[in-house]
Fold:
Amino acid sequence: MKNRDKWITIAFLIFILVIPFVSIVRSFLPKEQEQQLTEEELAILENNGTITDGSEIQKDEEQEDEAASAPSVKEPLFTRLQNSINTFTDGLFGRTKLIAFNTELTSLLTGGTYIESTQVLMGKNSMFFYKTELDGHPIWDYMGINHFSEEEMAAIAANLIATREHLAEKGIEFYTMCIPNKEIIYPENMPDTIARVNEMSRGEQLASYLEENTDLVFVYPKDALMANKEKAQLYYSTDSHSNQMGAFVNMQEFFKTVYGTYAELDSVKFRVDATDYAGDLAGMAGLADKYKIDTVYVFDTDSADKEQYHDQVLLYVGDSFGGFLSAVCKGYYKEVYWEDARDFQYSMYERYKPDVVIWERAERYCEVFAEPTLISR
Structure:
């Protein structure tokens, strides 16, 4: 008995010591030895609007050069320590396999009704949901427990009006979009253990407030998505984002609101680029190999209704949903530029010379509409 316990202890110590040791060794290996995306994976990302033409890669390189030449700012000790810990844990040898093992084990023990993950929620019909509390609060949005106060909605309204007036002085049209979280559109696939206190989410609450109290164009396409979800799947099962069919529905709601035109989902064409896609949520849960179940659709811009075309330059400022949405917009505008709101710079107005600016955020980020992102210099 004592010998058995001794060997178990030795095996455990080897296990917990080898992983950090191998991780440290790997950190010194040349970058070329790291796994790269295949051409097929890059093509899928490009066609979905996640990357477009390599310009993002060039942009990243330019930003790295700028960061290297910029004067250094000494971060607090705690921040430097936390960043070091995060970098180390992200690079732990076998991290993905360990996450996958833990997820598979909890799924097996619960009959496939639950997975152990800090970021991913297993829903019905093999649909995953984002349950993070570090990147917005999508589950709180679904539960209806984080509504805005009147003062917060008034501040958002004031900022959006100020942004519209500021851009009007530059001859630019300004519109806002808030894209519903997947939980809001597919509540039937949410686990029964997640109770809804109020079925009105704060995105819908904000949209109602702005409609009743301002003349702003604030597009929250929940109703359009709900009306079309029986025609096609509009959000990936394994990803937190809508697919390009969902993006098309969102943009058509925008066109109906702003221009008074509308095209049905079945009036345009989509190319199938893959039928075995595993999205960001499957990856976070360590289940990307098991759940390659999504179909990747790519909007055929040539099938866009020519009556909806606008001879204008569009600057689309948003989050990760913006890649899909701006890809659809390329069928309807003369030129389309997409910028992450976190990287937006005032000089971009001069660089792109837009006629139209759309400021978009996913519902879990909608509090940032109170920030003067588009008018700060």
DSSP finds 14 helices and nine strands in the chain. Residues 31-37, 47-75, 92-114 have pLDDT under 50 and may be disordered. Residues 115-370 form one domain.
